[in-house]
Amino acid sequence: MPRILEKISLKSLNTFGVQAYARWYTDINKVEDLQELSSTDQISGKPLLILGGGSNMLFTKDYDGLVMRINIKGIKSEIIEDNVYVTAGGGEVWNDLVNYCVDNQFAGIENLSLIPGSVGASPIQNIGAYGVELMDVFHSCRAYEIQTGEIREFSNWDCRFSYRDSIFKNELKGAYIIIEVTYKLSKIFSPKLNYGAIAQELQNRGILNPSIKNVSEVVSSIRVSKLPDPATIGNAGSFFKNPIVNLGDFRHIQSVFPDIINYPLDNERIKLAAGWLIEQCGWKGRVIGNTGTWKNQALVLVNHGNATGDEIFELSSQIIKSVQIRFGVILEREVNII
Ligand SMILES: Cc1cc2nc3c(=O)[nH]c(=O)nc-3n(C[C@H](O)[C@H](O)[C@H](O)COP(=O)(O)OP(=O)(O)OC[C@H]3O[C@@H](n4cnc5c(N)ncnc54)[C@H](O)[C@@H]3O)c2cc1C
């Protein structure tokens, strides 16, 4: 039976590094731990927070409930013709899975190298980077229903993935614990190089026919040069989603700001770069008390040392307000506010 601990600091368990205490805390190392806990009255009626690597969370206060850290490990793979089905425990570190796939020449997630966090959280917001989203490679996941204790399998379709979104952030928010994810990867490598500086960086290194490992290394080095390392400066990556506006609104904004960075999604919808909008409002690299925005990327809010979650949240509210005043666009937070 997993031990339930009381009044545990979550400071080292969230990448913002803000202080917050869990009233109760437990580590889940195997599915049986969940079943055993559910069979007692130790978790019934308690508010429950599922924690992975804490890299997409901002604690604005102590958590008056049970924090369950998912630590279920294991990676296995099955090759069927040109496809590789890789299954990993929800508590595996995402980048360890990427490295396992790169080492075994399994193609598909190399562009997602070095994203912090766990396998179990990867479908929650449909993680994405450098032109690849999790939904491109997600095959299925097995999840534990908290209310009934039943284990259900979700297909790619069931998850209702969209940009930084899934059913687990909406209708089923807080209802399931993802215990295992299966990714459909490939033995055949078709590199995706047309996003960000990947192609340029490969060229700088004199690589004409990149391997899976080359792409993974290049993506990792670009990320290291752009994003602060949470081990030294607390942050949760992009704090806001890139907003999507309709064509009419876009044309209006563009008439005033002709340089606006934009990515047409289809004939009707345009994605804007939240970082650019924030930068235009003068926020890039600003330090406000213990918090601020990152010097190389205004989309990343940082903890310069002793920031509280409230301070970071307040800064995010000010940024939302100024972007709305200048561009008429309302930014949505990507980070989960607790
Ligand atoms: C430096 C940095 C760079 C980043 N870059 C990117 C990026 O390029 N692309 C991107 O998409 N994200 C990025 N992120 C955000 C973050 O890494 C991802 O969202 C990641 O998937 C979060 O994983 P986690 O295990 O830390 O989740 P947590 O922060 O612990 O949890 C996030 C949410 O998922 C839920 N959850 C966690 N595990 C489970 C589970 N097993 N079952 C059910 N629910 C669960 C939590 O309750 C919470 O709602 C970045 C973060 C940082 C710090």
Give the topology:
Elements: E1 5-9, E2 21-28, H1 31-38, E3 48-51, E4 57-58, E5 63-70, E6 75-80, E7 83-89, H2 94-103, E8 128-129, E9 132-133, E10 138-145, E11 151-155, E12 176-186, H3 198-204, H4 212-226, E13 234-238, E14 244-246, H5 247-256, E15 262-264, E16 269-272, H6 274-280, E17 287-288, E18 291-294, E19 297-303, H7 309-327, E20 336-337
Derived from helix and strand composition plus strand pairing, the structural class reads: alpha+beta
- Total strands: 20
Order of strands in the sheet with most strands: 6-7-12-10-11
Radius of gyration: 21 Å
| Ligand species | flavin-adenine dinucleotide
- DSSP strand content: 25-35%
Shape: globular
Mean pLDDT value: 94
Q: Catalogue the unreliable spans.
A: none
Helix count from the secondary structure assignment: 7
What's the helical proportion of residues? 10-25%
Largest sheet: 5 strands, antiparallel
Distance between the termini: 27 Å
Instruction: Name the helix and strand elements from N-terminus to C-terminus, one letter apiece.
Output: EEHEEEEEHEEEEEHHEEHEEHEEEHE
Question: How would you summarize this macromolecular structure in one to three sentences?
Answer:
This protein is α+β, with helices and mostly antiparallel strands and 338 residues long. It is 22% helix and 29% strand.
Describe the structure.
The protein is of the alpha+beta class and 338 residues long. It has helices spanning 31-38, 94-103, 198-204, 212-226, 247-256, 274-280, 309-327, and strands at residues 5-9, 21-28, 48-51, 57-58, 63-70, 75-80, 83-89, 128-129, 132-133, 138-145, 151-155, 176-186, 234-238, 244-246, 262-264, 269-272, 287-288, 291-294, 297-303, 336-337. The model has no long low-confidence stretch (mean pLDDT 94). Bound molecules: flavin-adenine dinucleotide.
